[in-house]
Amino acid sequence: MLQLIDLRRRFGDVVALDGLSFEVPEGRIVGFVGRNGSGKTTTMRITLGVLQADGGEVRWRGAPVDAAVRRRFGYMPEERGLYPKMRLREQLVYLARLRGTPKDVARDRASELLQVLEVIGDPQARMESLSLGNQQRVQLAASLVHAPELLVLDEPFSGLDPVGVDVLAGVLSREARERGVAVVFSSHQLDLVERLCDAVVLVDHGRVVTSGTIEELRAMRARNLWRVEVAGAGAEWWSAVPGVRLDEHRDGEVILELDDAADPQRVLDLARAEGDVRAFGPIEPTLAQLFREVVAG
Amino acid sequence: MSDAATRTTDRGTWLLVARRDFWVRLRERSFLISTLLNMVVISILVLARAYGGAGQGPSFDLGYVGPPPVADGAVALGQQAGVTVHVHELPDEMAAAQALRDGSVDAVVFGDRIVARSSLDPTLGGLIEASSRQVRIDALLDRHGVTAQERADANAGLPVQTIEAPPPPHRSENAEVAFVAVILLYGQLFGYGIWVATGVIEEKASRVVELLLSAIRPKQLLAGKIVGIGILGLGQLIVVATFAIVLALVTGALDVPLSAVGAAALVIGWFILGFAFYASLFAAAGALASRPEELQNVIVPINLIILVSFFISIGALQNPDGRLVTIASLLPMSAPLAMPVRIVLGAAPWWQVLLSLAVIVGSTVVLVPAAARLYIGAILRSGGRVRIRDAWRAAA
Q1: Nearest-CB residue to A49 (from B17, B209, B214)
Q2: Which among A219, A237, A261 is the end of a domain?
Q3: Which residue of A49, A50, A146 is in closest CB contact with B6?
Q4: A88, A242, A243, A255: which has the fewest C-beta neighbours closer than 10 Å?
Q5: What is the interface size between A and B, counted as CB pairs within 8 Å?
Q6: Is the ipTM of this complex over 0.85?
Q7: How many domains in chain A?
Q8: d(CA B162, CA B319)
Q9: Domain of residue A276, CATH code
Q10: Which of A197-211, A227-241, B29-43, B151-165 has the lowest mean pLDDT?
Q11: Could you report the per-residue pLDDT of B239-294, keeping only the tens digit for each?
């Protein structure tokens, strides 16, 4: 398990991290979500030792992380880049060997990854000859080639086409489920985070605002919204039920917010008394809605 | 889960870096071109010496008809004056005229006459006249019964006193060796220093450095780069120096092959010292830039220092004992160029050589950690040039 404990970091007068803490268990995928400038990249850079924290601690499997431990981490920086003139496979083998993987193992794994990630191009091709999308896939291969125990990916999906997104999502799931890798990635594509992640960490102003599984987040933060569509209903027909409030009026349907005391079944009864009920059901808030809600509030 | 195949220590990682930097550049066309260019320049210098006769005294061909003493005397006198005279016996006047016309001899001695084609070279003329005078005086003395002993006493040269130590032998020949040495050293220190700076900027500009530094420590990256590129420079130097020596021996351009080998060893040794001194500076300068276009700006100060050292060292070829040259050969930034020149010309006393070695090794030991600190402080900062002070503080 990766543990980030009370990380602090300032850049001049700007507080980038203000006591940030969270955990990434092995075999799990954790989504790291927050607005631009909320401290995601700083957190990842500190985890990989590329940046020093002013305070706090990074622990892996219960022990403080040092250079030797970091060799077993995989990293995809926000600022992509590999050697432009180096050949694909040679480059991957080199990066794996820097982290201690023997040459022949590295070569096999590099070839395999180029296939799995569906990189279009000769393994002997130079990096600069690839399209941006393909370079992105090679970049991911570079983070995986030494078979890391922890994967830290900064915006891995940005710049990928839908097929690339699916390939990458598949690879991440497999790494977590089959190899037990702890995966944490940041993304602004919240539908993707929702689909892929076991847990979400929401960060703002350098602190974790909320974290947990999607269900937990919903239970914790979301409002209890119901969508009702009744043909020919009178105005404010729901006001007879205590604890019900109008949230939004869309053409023909209403979104009602129920507080804890309000019983949805009573609302339904009332609606049926009003006319034909065409739709009735809870609205599962998306992560995007939760995000806006949390960040705004 | 831990991968059993993964080694846990990161010692020796710098070797991987060194190997990559070595091979990548070895395969670059610019390396091939610079090697060939070095060889061409060396060939021109060596061949010019072998066939141009530069540095050797003038050389003449002297024919004679009849008895040889005057011509032989001219050869002996020529030797004393550093002039080579080859003699050719000719059967008669016809043959002499023919030899003069086709240029195979510069002049012909006929008993007491000198025949030249259209004019007589004054040096050669002087030698023949002096020789002929000697022959006539000898004949006169013989007739007056002067003994061989008396004649030898009268002919004894004046004792020579000097007010300064004599210059070492072969100085002019050595000056050419030193010239080649300083050209090679300058090109190598400068060229490979630039390669270090370029390599650092490349990694920074392509952003691969962030990935590298998540895997290895900055010092390993720096050390590997410097060693890898340095060994390539050293290898090229050895190839070029070997080529130069072989060429010089084959063409007979150098009479003293041992001094050439010594000079080559000197160049190689001083390249190692100079590169160790300069490479970390070039690396730090490279780290301060963010884009390849900024390379020229960040290396200006280093450029200037090397260039000034180069010109002082070229000046040292004429005057290896001058005060400026002596100082330059003792300062760490100019010693790698100035000191080899003075050593080759035999102008550096042993204690100055030792002092110079101590100074450059000592200052390298101090400089490398400082340059490494600048490198570490600047290498991950993108977006424009990094100021030295900021880099220094960032690595604290």
Answers
A1: B214
A2: A219
A3: A146
A4: A242
A5: 89
A6: no
A7: 2
A8: 19
A9: 3.30.70
A10: B151-165
A11: 988 888 888 888 776 665 566 788 888 889 999 999 999 998 999 999 998 888 88
